[in-house]
Amino acid sequence: MSSSSDLTQFGIYLAKIYFADKPEVFKVRPVLVIDMVNQLVLALKMSSRVRQVRVPSYILADWQHYGLNVPTAVLLSPLLALPGHDLYSERLLGVLNDQDIQSVLSGLADLRVG
User: Of these four, 2, 11, 48, 74, which has the most CB atoms within 10 Å of its CB?
Assistant: First the structure.
């Protein structure tokens, strides 16, 4: 596990994501770190089920470069606030390139405006 200071902004990490209806149950899945605030990590979930995503999302253009095995979408909503210890900082899968960063930020901005 990690402290938030060990993390890279726009890095893809594995994290514990707890189920809303069963808070004691979690699944380890990739997340995109957006920012770190105090002891919390602001992150977005990611999914390889790009055709089944029902929330605004962005499919990473360079997903293979990030060590992902299949096309992967960044789910633009909801923004997660995770305690740093729920991320596996030693498992940095990749860091987004400028094109993917700008596309994710643009998608998040569109959600705020819309």
Answer: 74
